[in-house]
Amino acid sequence: MNPLKSPVRHKSRAIAAIVALTFLGGCATFSKDNGLGTVQSATKARGLEQDVQWIKTEQEADNARATVKKLLAAPLTADTAVQIALLNNRGLQATYAELGIAEADVVQAGRLVNPGFSFGRLHRGDDISIDRTFLFNILGLITMPVRTDLEKRRFALTQGRVAAETLQTAADTRRAWHSAVAAQEAVKYMEQVRMAAESSAELSRRMAAVGNFSKLDQAREQSFYAESTAQLARVKQQALAERERLTRLLGLWGEDIRFRLPERLPDLPKAPREIADLESTALRQRLDVQGAMQEAENIAAAMGLTKASGFINVLEVGYWRNSETGLPRQTGYEIDLRLPIFDWGTARVARAEYTYMQAVNRAADTAVKARSEIREAYSAYRTAYDLAKHYRDEIVPLRKRISEENLLRYNGMLISVFELLVDARQQVSSVNAYIETLRDYWLSETNLNLALNGKSPGAMGVGSSTQATAGDAPGH
Length: 476
Fold this sequence. Notes:
Blueprint lengths: L5 H20 L10 H10 L12 H15 L5 H11 L1 H20 L6 E9 L2 E11 H72 L5 H36 L27 H8 L1 H23 L5 E10 L5 E8 L8 H66 L5 H37 L23
Helix pairs in contact: 2-6, 3-4, 4-6, 5-6, 6-7, 6-9, 6-11, 8-10, 9-10, 10-11
């Protein structure tokens, strides 16, 4: 072997290795679904049975539109409403784009910084000097595996957040559907109350005209009729507001807003759910808890990169090849290293450490809140079930029995028609109160599922708007 050729061969091999690494660094590619499969698996494992789709192309948009049209052809159930929202809610579709953004960061982290090349041509009289320099970022090559791993961790964290947002949208839609159906039912029963009040007011007016009814009693009947008319207007507006809230979540406009809802809420289940180990189940399944813990782990991993690159933040190697007229060809290399004279990286390292401490405390705080929220959610769920069952099995049957007895007494001319009308209003109001407790049950059931799997469902009070009965109606 010629010893004079050895340095040239070593340099050639080094250049070939750098070129090969550069080529491999450019091989990172995107996945077929941009990480949506992980989101679909996470939501399905947490009870979401509807299809989760990220619509990217015109063909997929047309298919989704056809599916929505088909679902809108029949009265919406809670499940079909959720499916429409997953397909047609543009805010949720915008959230899915975060998957593509995060995966793009992963791909970018797996690609080396483009190498640099400089070329210079100088001449002095007939003498010509040509300089060629090839620059390559060595630090980027060294830290590429760590940076790629960090971006993969951030990508997984984004997938968890997107899954939580999907569950949140499904829960919001389900709650809006139950509220809209209950409000629609309330309008129907409130109209019956107003009709009874109108009949009573008209009868009192006629009896007062012939001197068989006092002005005080007539004023009471007229007052209740006026108040029931105002109450009906408020209930109608509430029903409109609940329907519009559902419409927004479904992403509907134009002719599609004429969708139909069923006439009544689903029946109360035979028995409430029994969940063992509430707190451990929530900590194991809740996406916000998992996300907070994963974020702390990501910061811990990033601290390693910060400490490793805190002292040296720029390291480049350059290969030189110069030629000059009348002289042998000149080759060599240069190393570009930023000297840590002013910045030793201590501030970056300290920032990373404090950020990690912050993330650890936030993860612990999220876990504490999750334990409390799941206890509150389950208590609200059981209370709502017991109240709805009490109205269904006790209050409504008693009101019905009282109405039947009053009808017999009226037929026997033992009570007046006014007493019969008052009893009819009270019976309708007790049924309306049962509808509200049934609505509260279904809302609390949705909140419980979200507290178990997704994130904080917010306020979980039980039936603050539920009326006891209408027995305390004005004037009676």
